[in-house]
Design goal:
The complex is a heterodimer of chains A (about 110) and B (about 250). Chain A is mainly alpha-helical and about 110 residues long. Chain A has helices at about 1-25, 30-70, 75-105. In chain A, about 5% of the residues are buried. With about 250 residues, chain B is mainly α. In chain B, about 75% of the residues lie in helices and about 0% in strands. The radius of gyration of chain B is 23 Å and the shape is globular. The chains are: A mainly alpha (about 110), B mainly alpha (about 250).
Chain lengths: ~110, ~250
């Protein structure tokens, strides 16, 4: 059951790509463009979702520490912001890759 | 990127937009500094007062992170912070282009930071000692792999500095343009103006809601992100400098 669902999903993902591929081959364009769009969207979705999970864990731990020690709240907040920036940069890498895939299109 | 973002209104012919708007930021900052320091008074008033408060914030941050050895690097850090903050905020003015939403500007800032903190470390500890502190406090048979790993980590620092600032700014601009122009003005308002009855009801209401959401929520969020990214850039610069000054404490970022 599950395998057939996966196959159906793959077919569903592949059919527009194939259709565009036929059209692209007719007009002389590349077939990789539609897949680049799918890759950019899926990759950004996965990256931002997992990045949100990681940032949520970090913020939860920092808020808990601030609640236990309100005197050290300023230092914990600074450390939390730096940590958030470092986690967020991983999603930013995916954003840059997505932008490159969509607009620069190094592989046609 | 011209597909999504409208080019800025004022352009200098033959000069790329980020360069022209970098010059604008430079002119504004230089004029501010000139006006503030033309007649320095003991009891500051006006522009001098404002700039002293801003510089005092930077100084407290440096004392907090680097310690008393960080005072000589106040000009570098404050210049970077003020430049990046003004660039971020300038790109939010309608009709202007942001210099920090360009890979070359952020890459230049990150390369300046990279070269500076290595120079500071080499000048303070000498080249041999500074190279030794890359190996870290590990047994001798681990020193080779540790050196390679530390090298890669140090080389990744300017990359991550560059891409973080650039990606945040450009992503925010694309989001703002999508929400305001593609979905708000072109999509829903265009549907309302197309003349169909459903478009007049749904599109008009949705368009007004979308524009209110963009101006009321995403725009202030972008202002917050501008301040936050400038703060993070400056903070990481100070952490790198403090790591180079202190020497033997390995920092992992």
């Amino acid at each position: 059951m599950r395998r057939s669902l996966i196959l159906a999903g793959m077919a569903g993902l592949g059919v527009p790509g194939l259709a565009f591929a036929a059209e692209g081959a007719a007009t002389g364009g590349g077939w990789i463009g539609p897949f680049a769009v799918i890759a950019a969207g899926l990759g950004m979705a996965i990256a931002s979702g997992l990045c949100g999970l990681g940032q949520g864990r970090a913020v939860a731990a920092a808020v808990e520490a601030m609640g236990r020690q309100p005197g050290a709240a300023a230092r914990i907040q600074t450390a939390m912001i730096i940590g958030l920036a470092l986690i967020e940069s991983l999603a930013i890498y995916m954003l840059v890759i997505g932008i490159i895939l969509l607009f620069v299109q190094p592989i046609k | 990127m011209e597909i999504i973002e409208h080019p800025p209104i004022f352009r200098l012919p033959g000069i790329p937009d980020p360069v022209a708007y970098t010059w604008l930021v430079m002119i504004v900052l230089t004029a501010l500094a000139f006006v503030a320091s033309r007649r320095v008074e003991l009891v500051p008033r006006g522009v001098q007062n404002v700039l002293e408060v801003v510089l005092l914030q930077f100084q407290e941050l440096i004392d907090d992170v680097i310690g008393p050895e960080g005072r000589p690097y106040l000009p570098l850090i404050a210049t970077l912070g003020l430049f990046i903050l003004s660039g971020n905020l300038l790109s939010l003015v309608p009709g202007m282009a942001g210099p920090t939403a360009n890979l070359n500007t952020t890459g230049a800032c990150a390369l300046i930071v990279f070269c500076t903190y290595h120079y500071i470390g080499i000048r303070k500890h000498g080249p041999i000692t500074y190279l030794k502190h890359f190996m870290g406090p590990v047994p001798w048979w681990l020193k080779g792999p540790m050196f390679v790993i530390e090298m890669i980590s140090h080389l990744a620092r300017p990359l991550s500095l560059t891409l973080r600032l650039f990606g945040n700014m450009l992503g925010g601009h694309i989001l703002l343009a999508m929400m305001f122009f593609l979905m708000g003005l072109d999509g829903l308002i265009g549907w309302a103006l197309s003349g169909s009855p459903a478009g007049m009801v749904l599109g008009g209401l949705g368009g007004v809601l979308m524009i209110a959401f963009t101006v009321g929520f995403i725009y202030p969020l972008k202002i917050l992100v501008s301040f936050l990214q400038a703060f993070i850039f400056v903070m990481l610069t100070m952490l790198y400098i403090s790591g180079a000054v202190e020497g033997h404490e390995a920092e992992h970022h």
